[in-house]
């Protein structure tokens, strides 16, 4: 590979390659995001035990679900700004180091209140997604950016599924050594904290901010281009994408949070079995989110941004329909079948959303990514209120969310994602022709 190529975004994604700073950064970025899910949602599959240990009621569990995504909202907005100005490498490293503290410290919680505060602090780790998408966008050319973002995001999100499968096993192993269940869930959370410290070292040591180098190494002219333009806040396309992400990724993190508990309560599964089936939902990220990005790139090459928007609206509509089927499932088998169906379209919607996001304002990718990413957590927080309510069952909540998702798909359908500069160029051309 030539020196010139090493300093340019790649136009091809070879997932089996570690050659060059672009692919090395790609692999370390998705792996880091994967590990962040262990810290962020490591507690979720252990909630049946934590519920008993801390004597939590449904309302308190609902508050914990809300707290688990609330801190991420503000964090994603701030992280997007830091990516634009400070660089993704330093930003990710600091987030990992700070985030590991409450992850390992949550075992000190002895009451509902202290546990809630630790859960809120842990939620900041969710901002890792913005850095992942920002950094991948920096490393790849426009023709492959959607696919690269979707694969990195999907493989990272896979951590949400693996966490549901693995954390109950770590918990069981600790119990096997003679510790009580109340002690085991506390010691189990030390594992993801240590993992975060390891990837913090890898990220700082082996990645670069851009193909041309780190922000503090490249020329000042390049730095100037990273100044944030807050006029993007007036762009409806940004808020439309944030709304779309609120009902796809927002639903994903909500399901990651309550799936195991739902399966235990609704179908009387053991904690390990419930964690496994909740993990199947997350495990689909190994291909489903990537499919959304791949299809979006293919549609985009033929039909432009309008085609990408139509694809996003379609998969959101199918996600909503699948959720409503899940809500009406009368048996465990039907619940799993419908869960897999809505999971497929939900994760494709995640990928399709971030196949559009980097192109809305290419000079402020970090800020736009932060706003859209924060939208996902706003959705997760608001959905949490449904699962908190004493008057709404979990089954009812899934049905209501399905209807909301279908409504948002219609709003996305009428949004024109064509780049503003392209529209301006077209208007000028028409004026000249006249």
UniProtKB/TrEMBL annotation:
Keywords: Cell membrane, Membrane, Nitrate assimilation, Transmembrane, Transmembrane helix, Transport. GO terms for cellular component: plasma membrane. It is found in: Cell membrane; Membrane. GO terms for molecular function: nitrate transmembrane transporter activity; nitrite transmembrane transporter activity. Residues 25-420 form the Major facilitator superfamily (MFS) profile domain. Coiled coil: none annotated. One of its GO terms (biological process) is nitrate assimilation. It is a multi-pass membrane protein. Its main location: membrane. NCBIfam families: 2A0108 (TIGR00886). This is Nitrate/nitrite transporter.
């Amino acid at each position: 590979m030539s020196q010139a190529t090493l300093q340019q975004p790649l136009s091809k994604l070879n997932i089996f390659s570690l050659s060059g700073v672009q692919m090395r950064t790609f692999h370390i970025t998705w792996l880091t995001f994967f590990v962040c899910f262990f810290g962020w949602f490591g507690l979720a599959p252990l909630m049946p035990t934590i519920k008993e240990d801390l004597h939590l009621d449904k309302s308190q569990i609902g508050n914990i679900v809300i707290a688990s995504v609330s801190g991420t909202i503000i964090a994603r907005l701030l992280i997007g700004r830091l990516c634009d100005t400070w660089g993704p490498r330093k930003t990710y490293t600091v987030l990992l180091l700070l985030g590991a503290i409450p992850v390992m410290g949550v075992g000190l919680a002895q009451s509902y209140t202290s546990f809630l505060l630790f859960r809120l602090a842990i939620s900041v780790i969710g901002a890792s997604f913005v850095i992942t998408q920002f950094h991948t966008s920096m490393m790849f050319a426009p023709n492959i950016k959607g696919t690269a973002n979707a694969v990195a995001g999907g493989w990272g999100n896979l951590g949400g599924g693996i966490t549901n499968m693995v954390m109950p096993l770590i918990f069981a192993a600790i119990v096997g050594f003679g510790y009580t269940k109340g002690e085991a869930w506390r010691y189990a959370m030390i594992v993801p904290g240590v993992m975060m410290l390891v990837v913090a070292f890898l990220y700082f040591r082996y990645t670069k901010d851009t193909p041309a180098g780190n922000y503090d190494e490249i020329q000042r002219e390049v730095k100037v281009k990273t100044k944030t333009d807050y006029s993007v806040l007036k762009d409806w396309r940004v808020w439309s994408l944030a709304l779309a992400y609120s009902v796809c990724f927002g639903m994903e993190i909500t399901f990651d949070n309550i799936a195991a508990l739902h399966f235990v309560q609704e179908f009387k599964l053991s904690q390990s079995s419930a964690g496994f089936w909740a993990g199947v939902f997350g495990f689909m990220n190994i291909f489903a989110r990537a499919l959304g990005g791949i299809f979006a790139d293919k549609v985009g090459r033929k039909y432009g941004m309008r085609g990408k928007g139509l694809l996003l609206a379609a998969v959101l509509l199918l996600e909503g329909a699948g959720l409503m089927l899940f809500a009406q499932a009368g048996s465990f088998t039907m619940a799993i079948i419908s869960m897999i169906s809505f999971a497929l379209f939900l994760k494709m919607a995640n990928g399709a959303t971030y196949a559009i996001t980097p192109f809305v304002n290419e000079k402020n990718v970090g800020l736009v990514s932060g706003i859209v990413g924060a939208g996902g957590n706003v959705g997760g927080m608001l959905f949490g209120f449904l699962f908190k309510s004493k008057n709404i069952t979990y089954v009812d909540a899934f049905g209501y969310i399905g209807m909301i998702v279908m409504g948002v798909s219609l709003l996305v359908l009428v949004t024109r994602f064509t780049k503003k500069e392209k529209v301006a160029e077209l208007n000028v051309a028409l004026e000249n022709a006249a």
